[in-house]
Amino acid sequence: MKIDWFTVIAQIINFLVLMWLLKRFLYQPILSSIDERETNIKNKLLDAESQKKEAAKAKDEFNHKNEIFNKERDELMQKAAAEAKSEGDKLKENARNEANELKDRLEKAFAEDQANKNNNMAKRLKDEVLDMARKTLTDLSSVSLEGQTVEVFLKRINELQANEKAKFSEALKGGKPILVQSAFALSANQQGVIQKTISGLLKTENTYEFKTRPELINGIEILTNGYKLSWSVTDYLKSLEEDVEAGKKVEMDTNE
Known about the structure:
By secondary structure, the chain is an alpha+beta fold.
C-alpha cells in the first residue's frame, strides 16, 4: 500500500491547526472560566470563613455583654431589694416608734388626768379637814384655853435660841414699839406679864401696843421692825397643810 505523504502531512497540519484553534478559542476560555470560577469559589470560601470568624467573635462579644448585663441586672435587683427591705424596716421602725410615743403620751395624759382628779379630791379633803379643824378649835376657845395660850407663848419667848434673841434685839434698835396681837383680848395682868418677860429676856425697856386679831385662832404674835414671833393654832394648821403637800409631792415622785 502506497502512502500519500502529502495527504498525511496535510492531515497533520490540519490536526495541529485544529488543536491550536481549539486551544485558542475553546480550551483557553474554558480553562480561564474554570480558573476564574475556582478563584471565586476560593474567595467565597475565604469570605465565608472570615464571616464565620466575625460571627463567632460577634457571638462571643454578645455573650460577654449579656453576662455583664445579667450580672449588673442581678446586682441592681439585689441592691433594690436591699434598699426596699431597709426602707421597709425603717418605715416599720418609725411606725413602731410613733405608736410607742402615742401610747406613752396617752398613758401620761391618763396618769396626769388621774393625778389631777386625785389632787383635786385631796385638796378638797384637805380644805374640808382644815376648815373643820379651824371651826372646831374656834368653837372650843374658852377663858381657860386663852390662859394656856398665853402660858405657851411666854414659854416660847423664854426658850428662844441665841440667834433668835439676837434678831429680836437687833429689830428693837429702831426704836419702834412692839406690837402684840392676839385672837382674844388680853387682860392687864397678861399684858404686864408679856412685857416683863420680854424686858427680862432682852434687858431693854420698850413701848408696847396691843391689838386683837380673831383670825389668829387662839394665838398670839409679836411684831416689831420686820421681826415676828408667833404661836397660834393657825401655825399648826399651816404646818399640817405643808406636811400634806409634802406627802403628796413625795407620792407623785414615787409614782413617776
